[in-house]
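Lecture notes, unit on protein representations.

Consider one protein chain, 419 amino acids long.
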Amino acid sequence: MNNNLNFLIEASKLKEMPRTGWIIWRIKSPESIADHIFRVAILSWLLSEEKKLETEKSIKDALSHDICEVYAGDITPLFYYQNLNINRKRDKEILMKGIRLSQEEKKKRSKVKFKKEKTSLLKLVSSLDENIKNEIFTSWLDYEQGFSFEGKFTKQIDWIENLLQSLEYLGVSKSGSGWWEIAEEKVYDPFLLDFLKVIQQRFYHNIKNYRSNKKLEGILEFILEVGKLKSLPRLYWRLLGIKKPETVAGHIFSLSIAVWVLGSNQKDLNTEKLLKMALCHELSAIYTNDTTPYDPILPKQKQDQKKVLSKMLHISQSKKEEIFKKEYNEEKRALEKLTKNLQPKLRAEIIQLWKEYRTRSSPEGNFLNQLNSVIVLLQGIIFKKEYKQISLTPLWEWVYEKCDHPVCLQFLDDLKKIK
């Protein structure tokens, strides 16, 4: 188990690593690599399900596709151009127009990038058990080399997510043709080309005789809303005074990776269902904002909240039930609002997965609910290395109150050794 812990600690570093392209563009507080992986995974789930592909495989390809960047670093999709300076007019023009390299030069640089990232990934997974190590490496290789339909599909989705982020950060006018050129070069699946048309119509309104596609339009509106979680900081850490807390999207990434590593060998659990549940378990935060287990009893003054959160918090059972009922209803309404434009079957699936998680009414829901608390505690331990003054005692109490699954209890034993 300790090998799994080491892997998850290293992978969590992706939540602190901003993506290179947005640094070049001087985007304030840009998305992290983990934030990006989160939305690629969500998009892969929704679109691969519509395409009738193996959804679990697509999600795993998405989750693994950039984790090598823990050590390799992020290489901007604007094709390895070096020494760009966004303050120089010429370099701005290059970024606006896109960078054109010969096919030979692209292949040469791609080989260098592939070798560097492969070495990084093998280093990252080296401590894992053989089965899970091979599975993560195979998923990453499938994404890189396109051995399966899912691998090819997910890689195209990655370019689409980059395009969407450029439109969100820079707007229609500044985003320019660069990301569109890359997307049009990389995306070739007919279904995804239709999705590009939906994106173009949504942002530019310039497709003549455009035929509405309600399925894809609904997915696009959903995924644009979901993107807001990339910039929503986790409330508990913010209240404790953490200057750069993880985002909700970053937390979902960590939990999804933990599900893959810790849940795959549990014969009584459905891994695909667990991964989907992890990806949607906190989507309601888009409208409800993030919460802590103690929100209803916290004082209104911010300076007093940190003091309270640093102490043992004892809540009566009746108060816990009252808090749960209130939060459950608020989150349900938020999720219904978020999914209103999705097709009925997909909408029902997302709401049902969330319900099972919140009520712990299925084996997967019960396990994920417990694992989520463990991953929150792990993040707290990581933060405490820098913020030694914060107290994690209430978190330890909260987690032990929730957990009885052997996997989670064993993981907690390992966490004790590093606290």
